[in-house]
Amino acid sequence: MNPAVKPSEQHRPTRLPGPVRRRHDREIIALALPAFGALVAEPLFVMADSAVVGHLGTAQLAGLGVAATLLTTAVNIFVFLAYATTAAVARRVGAGDLPAALRQGMDGIWLALLLGALVIVGTMPTAPALVDLFGASGTAAPYATTYLRISALGIPAMLVVLASTGALRGLQDTRTPLYVAVAGFTANAGLNVTLVYGAGLGIAGSAWGTVIVQNGMAAVYLWVVVRGARSRIPGGNSDWRSVLRPDAAGIRACARAGAPLLIRTVSLRAVLMIATAVAARLGDTEIAAHQITLTVWSLLAFALDAIAIAGQAIIGRYLGADDPEGARAVCRRMTQWGVTCGIILGLLVALTRPLIGPMFSSDPAVQDALTSALLVVAVGQPVSGVVFVLDGVLMGASDGPYLAWSMLVTLLVFVPAALAVPALGAGLAALWWAMTLMMLTRLATLWLRARSGRWVVTGAAR
Q1: What pLDDT score does 14 carry?
Q2: Rounded to two decimals, what is the model's pTM?
């Protein structure tokens, strides 16, 4: 690895020539648009569940709110399987070593299967205790426990999807994840309606639909990866088969590289879990409205993260190819994109928020609480646009230790603000102002790092 610049030479904001800006825009759009479709699949899965389950009753929706947060936490704390794999594979692509890039991707997939098995073992027997820990009411807790236990069976497949998606992004392919995500969302929506209402399974039918679809998506990804290894690696069967076999040293290296991002993600998930726990203690109406608000916020976050995903792949490739100036230029351009997209999404939420409530709940009290919370979400979108972009830039640069430290600082700022909400007798809108404070803290820490230039380290591995 090579430090790219001296601190005194860092990040000068020179204006790029028009042809260079247009080339970067084409690179970003070519990766970001398909990535957007794939990224929004996860919140769309939850939105489909929320829309179907929400009309069963407020208690069922409240139970889904708690269970969905626990489930996404169990999966998303391992999001480094996607992000770290993207950066590592992209660096090796930039360095011109395709077999090493594919091997890195397979190490992530094998690690995903191992971690998924461990999560199932830990989640199944502890589901009731986890639901109680979140303060779910007596009416909502049974529904939360049912949904969590069934959905946990799909966790290994969900982690394989994460790792496989990261490998393909690193190979500069965001179209395949888009196709798989669209097919998965369509199947999930259809199965939810069929199993919940047609088969009369209630909230359990929604959970089973998600499990079936996630396993189908994982199978497709594995087929794509195996086919890619066979077609891209020269030589006989032994060459490409050796890339696919589990390698203990490679899996351990993948785990070590992902450890800082695990800390970063656990801290972020702690923020979301604390917010859900606070909302649950405000009442069933508030937790139901919070679940919908969090689902919309997640959809917006994944939309903005599409630019960051493109940045991970592009910046990793530039750094792997020993082109630090190209990496810095892409960072600047993506930040501009983040601000613009954040403003557009914020205006969209502000204008459509009266229409969102009736889509998910027929309870007027839930709709009122939701409208106020969504206004706060709309105000914070420009900040979110920059945060997600810079987060993706540093991930693409494999700057995991700094991301871990900065998220711990953010957690320390958020906790007292969130806990003050019920203590002061405030409502759901106040809780989402605390979430906005969290995003402002992330913005400050990430901006300082981006300006410093210390993330710009070139080479096939950091």
Answers
A1: 47
A2: 0.76
